[in-house]
Amino acid sequence: MAVIKEQSRMWKVKPLDGVITMQAQYRTFSFTAHYHEDYAIGLIEDGVQRFNCQGTDFAVPTHSLFTVNPGDVHDGRSALSNGYRYSTIFIPPELLSPFVSSSVQVRFNSPLNEDLQASRLVQKLFVSLRSSHPEEIVIQERFHEMLDYLMTTHTNQTPDSLPHYSHPAISRGCDFINDMATETISLDDIATAVGLSPYHFLRLFKKQTGLSPHGYLLNRRLHLARAAIEQGSPLADAAIDAGFFDQSHFSKHFKAAFGLTPGKFKNAISPSSG
């Protein structure tokens, strides 16, 4: 395999409401620990990706899939010195409603999927998405064929779509951070709100979520800013309103979590984007 040049591209899938896809290739770039609010299904097209998801390390070889549930904390990097290339599709949870009853959500069984049939169906979809003249009906058919297979063979149904934390204080801590993300808060503030000492809360939070409280707060702010950008907010306003007071700090963390800068993301999801 030739040495890969680092680049990424993201765009909205117009025939599929709310769906975003991304093509990327990286050699030295590493994703920081983060989570998505959507399901992420990715196909490794060249090289090997190594990532940690919910505390377990995985190596995803060429022609294999990674499948990440909403809320699952993970990172990502190349396992080889010459890099890796992949495509990912991000699917809002509401698009999976035809596959489950209203009282449950689906979760992928494992972040690593080496089922060749699943990989073929995902690859067929990406071929359509990258076509110079994509037909909407073909994209829609292949999308639903892929989902139908993955949902029936590689998922389970649970009452909640987000990870379940065994200690109720951690769930309360996450709720507190989510509610106060745009404010200045301290570790003492969160620990007091959940009734634990700062030391005990910090240890427990990192063990159960895979992030420090500050890391979780940072991710929450990034998702708030991303949502504002999707709604058309100027980049500076989106950053400030989400709790970032330094534009370069915001851009650095945005790229580390999502693989591209806020400006490139804004261009990718604009109404005129492909």
Textual characterization of the structure:
This protein is of the alpha+beta class. It has 2 domains: about 5-160, Regulatory protein AraC (Jelly Rolls), CATH 2.60.120.280; about 170-270, Arc Repressor Mutant, subunit A. The chain has helices at about 115-130, 135-155, 170-180, 185-195, 200-210, 215-230, 235-240, 245-260, 260-270, and strands spanning about 5-10, 20-25, 30-35, 40-45, 50-55, 55-60, 65-70, 75-80, 85-90, 105-110, 110-115, 155-160. The strands form 3 sheets. The protein has a 6-stranded antiparallel β-sheet. The radius of gyration is 19 Å and the shape is globular. The mean pLDDT is about 90.
Element string (H = helix, E = strand): EEEEEEEEEEEHHEHHHHHHH
Record field, number of beta strands = 12
> In what range is the share of β-strand residues?
15-25%
Tell me the CATH topology of the largest domain: Jelly Rolls
Summarize this structure briefly.
With 274 residues, the chain is α+β, with helices and mostly antiparallel strands.
